[in-house]
Amino acid sequence: QVQLVESGGGLVQPGGSLRLSCVVSGLQFSWNPMSWYRQAPGKERALVASIVGAGDRTNYADDVKGRFTISRDSAKNTVYLQMDSLKPEDTAVYYCKADLANPYWGQGTQVTVSS
Questions:
Q1: Cβ-Cβ contacts under 8 Å for 69 (sequence gap 6 or more)
Q2: Is residue 27 within 8 Å of 3, Cβ to Cβ?
Q3: How far apart are CA 55 and CA 45, in angstroms?
């Protein structure tokens, strides 16, 4: 059974940082492409960042470039999203996704950026 479990969300002030984690079980993790998406209230779910292979190939949405960093630790079956210089518009539910032919999603973790 494939499971993706996100954690690390919470309430943070503008300019602050959070690190999201996504622990993957039930599939061969090491080289599978993985992504982080987010969905704000009233908006569609959108790609934030993706990673392929060991981490030398990454991709970011324009509005998070330079502020967010995606990485993976294959020994821990975990993909991370380091979020720095957070803005109120980053407020959303963040989802981890395994980008397979049959994709798998986590349950999401809430990130709220507010003073």
A1: 49, 80, 81, 82, 84
A2: no
A3: 23
pLDDT band at 101 (very low <50, low <70, confident <90, very high): confident
Measure CA of the first residue to CA of the last residue in the chain; give whole Å: 40
Percent of the chain, pLDDT > 70?
97
Phi, psi torsion values for 86, nearest 5 degrees: -65, 145
pLDDT of 15 higher than 80: yes
- DSSP letter (8 states) at residue 75: G
Average pLDDT over every residue of 92-106 = 94
- CB-side neighbour CA atoms (13 Å) of 67: 16
85 CB neighbour count, 10 Å cutoff: 13
